[in-house]
Prior knowledge:
Catalyzes the phospholipid dependent N-acylation of the N-terminal cysteine of apolipoprotein, the last step in lipoprotein maturation. By secondary structure, the protein is α/β, with parallel strands linked by helices.
Amino acid sequence: MKDKMLALIAGILMVFSYSPFNLWPIAPFAIATLFYLNRNVSAKTAASHGFIFGLGWFGAGISWVHVSIAEFGGLPLIASLLLMVILVAYLSLYPTLACWLSHKFSNKNTLSITYLALFIPLFILMEYLRGTLLTGFPWLSFGYTLTDSPLNSLAPWIGETGLTAVSLLLGFAIYALSQRSFKPAVVISSLLLLTLGLANFSPSVSYRDKSIDVVLVQGNIKQELRFAPENFWPTMAKYQDMTRPNWQADLIVWPEAAIPEIEVLVDDYLGNLDKAAAFNNTALITGIIDYQLGTKTVYNNLIVVGKKHADDQQGHYRYLHHNRYNKHQLLPIGEFVPFEEILRPIAPLFDLDHSSFTRGEAKQANLIANGYHVLPAICYEIAFSSLVRGNYQQDSDILFTVSNDAWFGNSHGPHQHMQIARMRALELGMPLVRVTNNGVSGVYDPIAKHGQYLPQFEAALERFTLPLTTGKTFYSQYGDRALYIALLLCFIASLIPNGKNKRACHN
Length: 507
């Protein structure tokens, strides 16, 4: 019972290694605790420790999900809590399987370097499945805890997945030290220091002699009013009024669905916005809902109005023009409802406004706004590194993501969301622009590793100058392929008998 309580506490403490707390050293110690608990135990016991660790890890880490269920789901408290328990238990199955399979394959109870060579590939395989199955939920991966750590210099080379492996290595080194087994700790530390040194002295991305001035407009519209029909025009007028005195920038950006009315019904509004932006020699990107009457399909869109190319003399917007982005990775329940014939009548949670979106293509062209090539991602999509990287192009100038985190109130969810976006910027070596309805909105420079942010829960507007970058990161070109090959080789090597007993960290 004491071991299970320790596993739960270690999992709960993981939340403090993510934003907004950013106490990243907690994560390796929590992981070391899991290794410690799984020494000299059976596969079944290791699995139970992994499950309980997962309950703490996800229970505390995504507790913000309950805010949206409780406030907007229309369910009794007991039902909303039950849904959270089911979600957390499901996510906890993945670390459970990693622990169980590692002990099964290792065929020994002690933890050694051989065991680590099994555990890391299996754990990352489980993380891959967690981010893929049932549309995927890749939130709270270990690598995100290192976003603001000195080890973030490795992100352009090995990405967040590689940083997850680094977190596991650090955890095992701490565990080894606790068992007075110094050789694994020295080897791991030396390897990480050498790799970090090489990464810092061989940067793949540098500044170029060009920057972008961008204005972020954060409307701070209350969630319960955003899709109330009587509030459509007041919302649109608010964004227009906030922007009117602030056109003098290279690019203006509004949040996800900042224009709450469907696109086909606001042609005049968009036409005037298009002319105003072009008259002021700029472009504006906004989120909007597109319901296509002929096909009955509905898309969560980003569109560009104003100048497409820097030398254009007029705006280019027209309905269904190609300079748009259709969201691909839809949020379950929020944007599409599986088994909707069964679920929609059960509770308001399964029948929310705009919960029948159509999925856009996975690979889409960058937006072009005032001559800048903009790599887009809408809300939840920014957590899917392969999706974002799949739309990266050699001439992409900035990474741009929009969201509406008003669903999650004053919780740590929006801060984690911005942290994930900053990790994508580090991976690709591209400046980040992120604008949301009520925060966290801001910009991030991946070379200086410095961000600037608007105040949360306020109607706010700010102009930022971001230096653009040149060069391609290793990760932008190859993604996780090299890492997966290395992990596969480690896994295979660990299974090959060599006739010698590996020295364990603890007997």
